[in-house]
Amino acid sequence: MRRRIVVMLALVLALAAAPWSALAVSDPAEMLPDHRQEQRAEQIGSLLRCLVCQNESIEDSGADLARDLRHVVRVHVARGESDAQIMAWMVSRYGDFVRLRPAFSATTALLWAMPVLALLAGALAALLGWRRRGATAPATRPLDQREQERLAALLRGS
Amino acid sequence: MTALARRRVLALLPFGAALAAGGGFWAMLSGMRHGSFDPHDIHAPVLDRTVPAFDLPAQAPGTGFSSADLRAITRPVLVNFFASWCIPCVQEAPVLAELGRKLPIWGIAYKDQPDNAAGFVARTGAPYARIAADRPGLAAIDWGVSGVPESFLIRPGGRIAWHLAGGLTQPVIDTELMPLVARFGG
Predict the structure, then answer these.
(1) What would the pLDDT profile of B76-95 be if each residue is shown by its tens digit?
(2) Whether the complex's predicted ipTM surpasses the cut of 0.85
(3) Nearest CA to CA, how far is B38 from chain A (Å)?
(4) Could you tell me the fold of the domain covering B67-183?
(5) CA A49 – CA A17 distance, rounded (Å)
(6) Is some CB atom of chain A closer than 8 A to the CB atom of B111?
């Protein structure tokens, strides 16, 4: 009985998963015959946003528009255009939003510089902290007679 | 500055930063609610450009058109991408039918079977003066279309004056579209 339930459950899960796996994997007929060109197309496509499911690249998305854009990228790659040319073609149609990795420009300068700025701010804070600790650390002096006797007594364990 | 004052300022610094960030997030969220800020919005770079080059075949019951036809217009025209499989297009249809009395609308059937598109036009009474078919959906990419429905106002000379990704509504027509149509001699 239990086994039958497990089998049923597995079947239901497999059926539920089937359309998704069909969507996620692109049709091999889309791929370029030249392996190197296909790899380049996949690389470019992974940097392009699918405008329908906006947090996926066109390589990951199962949307119709993503399939069309994958096709367009492959046509341009087969024509021998550079990555920058293909990116520019896409940006001229869909704007900077189509880039999953924002280009470096006046508006994105702060975004790109942020890791370095944060690191510098942290280093500065650490440096200031260290310097202050060094300045306020109590001056050390050798133990006087009474303290040495007490220490000796403690060490003897009495 | 005394050491105590400096420590007070330093202690307040994180609160200040949190307050500034909170203010920023609040502005973004309220902008999203009122429609003045939309992070998913695709700002069409085609705005203020001449229509991209295309030549599309006719879709029954209309005649097809090309970019040359749009460059030759003397009064503003609304280009409307639609599809029979698109639910927002059905919702948009009554508004479009009303708008068709004031402004010529040219339709482009996007990735649609000819029979289905013709059925959609007959069923909804969409007032397209001309209808072209973009079955592969590649001409639409040149316009920066990311879905249907999507509308573009073309001013005389074939320049794109206005763009809406999504269904037309009466408030949008009254406040955004018609003032532009009037300005460009509609």
Answers:
(1) 999 999 999 999 999 999 99
(2) no
(3) 12
(4) Glutaredoxin (3.40.30)
(5) 24
(6) yes
